[in-house]
Specification:
The structure is a homodimer.
Chain A lengths: L2 H17 L5 H5 L8 H13 L3 E2 L8 E2 L1 H11 L7 H15 L3 H16 L2 E6 L7 E8 L4 E8 L4 E7 L6 H15 L9 H10 L8 H15 L2 E5 L2 H4 L6 H9 L4 H6 L5 E5 L11 E10 L2 E11 L4 H22 L2 H7 L2
Antiparallel strand pairs in A: 1-2, 3-7, 3-10, 4-5, 5-6, 8-9, 9-10
Chain A binds a DNA duplex through helix 3.
DNA sequence: AATTAGCACTCACTCTCTTAGAGTGCTAAA
DNA sequence: TTTAGCACTCTAAGAGAGTGAGTGCTAATT
């Protein structure tokens, strides 16, 4: 392996990404950065093929990168495009538009923008509610025997659910129960609000509170919703516009998209690229997924990913992804000044 | 036009729906209900073609129905399959599963089941919240300067939204404002809770309440959410499994699915069938949509629809659709006994 | 007048065969 | 070590030919 071969590999990857056609030795030799003849290129290509970095659809066709070829290119060869200042400003505006309000909206905006810019599908896995704190729990009468339980977290997530009781509650009962919930639930983290914890709580309830068990059950379900990472997808349609992706596989993927959760949950740092071929949970042929973590005050709290064809302009897409995940990290980390205030208020 | 031609048309439609291949005269003549020779069938087919009910992909191919052919078949010829008793029971169970809780869940369950059973996409447009009454409005502190406004309707819909104020409210201010909202908003219908009404309300607020305008604004937005028909789709993937639908058109449709709202909103009674070809807002080639209204106490409050290939087993699908929309009508009409109770409670 | 048998005709589809061209691999010369 | 030259390979595109399902028309039959 030498300098020139790497240069040729990079040239093949870039040309193939650009045109989608297998690349011949003549095309490469004609490039300004290549100063050798087509015959030499051919020799080097044959050698790159032996190393498993390039492949042939058939004898008399040009070369295209293998998965290994892409991987080497991404890790060592590519020169990431840097975003021009004006582009950054445009993106920042996009995110600010109405996203500053809550984390959830911010992340949604970023995912939408990412899908839009890359013309790929974008996915985000957000487990940040887990790390926030229940800042408020409310029980609100909502009709005969119907009560709404409401959880608000320090991160700004709001969840509600209607529950039906066997009896109507008197105002005193309601006040007492609210008091009980506030004392036992407010201020603890979503993570801690587990099924066992709730079971303990139910056990601790005095006898006459037992009829309120459905409310506790409701809270339990809300907390489960908050704890589980929810995946959000944007721009799935873009996968259908992709010639090289099999439509049926895309459909299958969309139907089973929740299985991605595992992949996104893995802990790693920086950027990770996964190819459709060599993974169990992400099985569109000729596809690739690029994932980056975002952090909240230094802790990984979610992943942002781009899903597209393997033949993707990585040098352009990866910087976008890095920018967005950095931006999300920054914004959700500062925003959370409110945390303590949320509880101070009461 | 005579009896026999109609019989032949029906036979062609059914056979074509069954096989997906153009149907030849011999196939038709061999059917038990047809007692004439292939030559006679050919003559009649030619005549049906002249009337614009059948068509030819090319000279030496069999016939297939035109849009007009389908329409005539649906309106006059088809014999709707009746649901066997056990099937009804199964469906009722499906709906009851957890759907009795709220209207919203009930409708969601029905839509999911419909998509599942027909292997098509199902869509529901629900404008019923418009006709229900605000049974409860709450303002809940949720962090420094953050407040959550919450609307509960008699139909069981719950909406919330976080708002940011310029100042924190004291407990008295909060109580007073809640009182103010309850007096002015609870008990009126969602329909009445218009932008003007809210503007009047803001005008009526005493000076020191003016800083709470963002909360009123929030309520205004919640009410707008409730008023506008929200479309819900289920089983969109099924459209991709459909050979005869163009994948790109399906993608385009899904991206612009909200444009269906207009079509679903039209008032009509009974069942309506719309074909992709002859409509501006619903443009998948070779597709059709069957829509039925559902009612609440006699008023149309929403539409339930099935979207699938034009080559669809209408005789099977239409009864399903009718059954579901009737069932929804029945359930949401009776369920509403709670209406008055919801307010009586307070 | 309506129906049917018979037959020529049409046209998509499938095969096979051919050709053109892009690209390779190898060899021998520079 | 690099390059020019050349034979070789394999696909993609196109042309013909054969097949068969199905039609449309005509003349005979009921």
């Amino acid at each position: 392996m030498n300098e020139r071969k790497l240069k040729i590999l990079a040239a093949v990857v870039e040309e193939y990404v650009r045109t989608g056609e297998p690349v011949g030795s003549k095309t490469i030799a004609a490039m300004p950065q290549i100063h050798v003849s087509a015959a030499t290129v051919r020799n080097d290509m044959a050698s790159l093929e032996q190393m498993g970095l390039l492949e042939h659809p058939h004898t008399s066709a040009g070369r295209m990168p293998t998965i290994g070829g892409y991987r080497l290119y991404i890790e060592k060869l590519m020169q990431p495009a840097s975003l021009p200042e004006e582009e950054r400003e445009r993106l920042d505006e996009m995110l600010a538009e109405q996203g500053a309000m809550t984390e959830e909206l911010l992340i949604e905006n970023a995912t939408t923008a990412l899908a839009e810019l890359t013309q790929c599908a974008a996915v985000v896995s957000d487990i940040s509610p887990r790390f926030s704190v229940i800042s408020r729990v409310e029980v609100i009468p909502a009709g005969r025997r119907m009560y709404v339980v409401l959880l608000i977290t320090s991160g700004g997530a709001i969840k509600n659910k209607a529950c039906r009781l066997e009896f109507d509650l008197t105002d005193e009962q309601l006040a007492l129960f609210s008091q009980f919930l506030a004392e036992n639930i407010e201020g603890i983290s979503v993570e801690e609000l587990s099924e066992e914890r709730m079971a303990q709580l139910t056990a601790a309830m005095s006898a006459y509170m037992l009829s309120m068990a459905p409310l506790v059950q409701g809270i339990c379900e809300l907390s489960r919703d908050l704890r589980q990472r929810a995946l959000m997808f944007r721009g799935e349609q873009n996968l259908f516009s992709c010639e090289e992706l099999d439509k049926m596989e895309v459909v299958h993927f969309i139907e089973h998209k929740d299985e991605l959760a595992g992949l996104l949950d893995d802990s790693f740092s920086g950027i990770r690229v996964v190819f459709g071929e060599d993974n169990d949970h992400f099985v569109i042929g000729n596809s690739s997924m690029i994932v980056s973590k975002y952090r909240k005050k230094g802790h990984n709290v979610g992943s942002l990913g781009v899903i597209g064809p393997m033949r993707l302009d990585y040098a352009k897409v990866i910087p976008y992804l890095e920018y967005f995940s950095q931006k999300i990290s920054d914004l959700i980390s500062e925003e959370n000044d409110d945390d303590s205030g949320a509880r101070r208020r009461r």
